[in-house]
Amino acid sequence: MTTEIHSAGENSLIVYLGDSTSPSVSARVQLTAQRVTHALGDALIDLVPSYASLLVIYDPLLTDHFHVQQAIRSVLLTLDVTEDAVTQGNRITLPVYYSAESGADLLTLAANSGLTPEDVIRIHCEQEYRVYAIGFAPGFAYLGEVDERIAAPRLSTPRQRVPRGAVAIADRQTAVYPAVSPGGWNLIGLCPLRMFDPDSNPTMPVAVGDIVCFESVDRDQFFALGGELS
Predict the structure, then answer these.
(1) How many structural domains is the chain composed of?
(2) Last-in-domain residue among 13, 43, 77
(3) Could you give the percent of the chain with pLDDT greater than 70?
(4) What share of the chain is helix, strand, coil (3-state, %, to 5)?
(5) Pairing of strands 129-134, 141-144
(6) Spatial distance between the Cα atoms of 151 and 147, rounded to a whole number of angstroms
């Protein structure tokens, strides 16, 4: 498995821990993050895990590139990713109101897949999804992998406005839009829960390494949980 360390700024390094997206690579990223946190201690400012990489940001008043790189190399030499080695993430269930009313692309995605809308909903809810990365916007969690039967390419023309809470699919990924924004993913429903709230602790209900499941709720349940249609 390819491992590389590169400079990413005056006080940051990026560690590439694989060249593909998979649960095993994600586990390797997660375990490296845990070990680097312990190795750097107070010198660590932040870690940003992604699909197959880890961005390490450190305090230049307490250490430097050379010592951080040496610490990372020492971590990598002893890295042994087993099921028990990685702290298991949380399991989160997100409610979703799936419908043509709440998911503008649900009917089209179903038709293009040779499925009924009910099939798409069932398949989307049956899968467990790993949080591989958080980016694009605060709280936007990239979840994978979507069952290939309902995988769908991004829209050829992105929408200028996607509502907060929109549950969407792009290729083998799914996500919940945390705020109103432009977007080119296929919309299949709405989640009433906030994926990012700066006034909450924690600010996001999910983190990299967590497992997410979706649960279908009806229109009344959606509104009772605080959902809104725009």
Answers:
(1) 2
(2) 77
(3) 96
(4) 25, 30, 45
(5) antiparallel
(6) 6
